[in-house]
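Review form for a predicted model. The reviewer records the input and the model, then writes brief findings.
Reviewer: anonymous (R2)
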Amino acid sequence: MADTFRARVDRAWADFARKEADLRRLLQEGKGEELIAAIRESLALCFTKINFEIAVGERIRLILALEASMPMLFEIAYFAHHIPEDVAEHWEAVIGRQKMDTPRIDARWLGEVIRAEDTFFRARPGKGPFVGLEVWNRPLMKHWEEHQRGVRWMLGNMVDLAIGEAASMRFVSRFDVLTEFPEDGQTIDCLPQTLRDMGLDVDGEHLDKLVNGLRSYRMRPVIGAAVPLRGDISSGVTRLPGLLNGWATGDRSTFDDFARDGVAAGFLCWSIDGLGKDALGFRNTLASYLQQTAGPDAFAYMGGAEGLKYGYLDFLAWDLRPVLDEAGAFFRKAGRPGRYVPFVRENPKPKN
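Model under review:
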C-alpha cells in the first residue's frame, strides 16, 4: 500500500509538532478560527474526515470525535497512542467526547445554546446490554424541518456529553429524535443514573471494551465441493463485526472507511489439513508471531475463525508490507502455504 496509515500518522504528528508553539499562541490570543484551521490542516494529513474539539486543562485537550464509527475508533486510538513526546508536554490527544456533569453545546450555526435543562429523553431497554433512546430539545425543534440531519447530530452529541462518547457507542443501539415534548421524559443529565438503574455499567472502562473486546460467533458451514472462502467457518471471534457482516453481504462500507485512510483490513488463510487438534494453536502462534515481528505499529489482531478446510486470522494493517513479509516467513518456516485476502467481497451469493 503506497500511502499507509502508519505513514499518514507520522506526517500528521510531524506537521503538528512543527507548528505546536504557534498553535498555543493562537489559543492564548483567542484566535479560535485560525487555531481550528491550523489543526485541521495537520489532521487532514492523516484522516480523510475528522471532527475534533479543543478544551483547556492542565494540558490542552485535542478531543477527537468517534462519531459512532468503529473504524474511526481504531484509527483514533492508534493516532492518539503515537503523540510525540514534545507535543505531549502541552497537549493531550483524547479519544472521543468526554462526559460532562451538565451537558451544553453552543450551536453557533443555528444561533442556539443547547442546554441540559432543555433536553429530554426516554430510554427503552434493548436486547442484551443495550438501550434505545428518544431525545427532544426545545430550541432545536424549531429548526427540525430545515436541518433534520444537523439537529439529529447535535442531540447525539448531547447524549455523548451526558455519558461519554465511548459509552454511547457501547450501549446505545438505537437513537431517535422526538418532535413533541415527552411528558414522561427526563432531562439529559439524568441519563447516567437511568442507565445504572437499568443495570448498565455506564461508569466502566468503555474504550478498552470497544477496542479489545472479542465477540464469539457461530455459523453453519457450507459443506460440498465448491465452498466459498470463509463459507466453511463453524465458529470464530471478532473485534469488528462490521467487517464480517460486510463480507457476508457485499457491503464494503467498513472496508472502504479504513482504506480511505490507508488502513488495510484483511485476513490470512491456510489449509488446516494435517493440523488436527493443533489447528487453533497454529492460528494463535501466527497471531503472536506477527504481534512480535511486524509489531503493533503495523499489525492489529482483530480475531479469527476455524473452518472445516481452512484457518483464518483477521487483522488491520497500519502498514501492510511488513505484515505480509513476516506472514510469508512464518508460512515458509511452517511448510504450509498461506495467503492474504482483503476483507471485501463484491458479489456474495444471495441467500435463498
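Findings: The chain has a mean pLDDT of 93.
Further findings: The chain has 14 helices and 15 strands.
Recommendation: see findings above.
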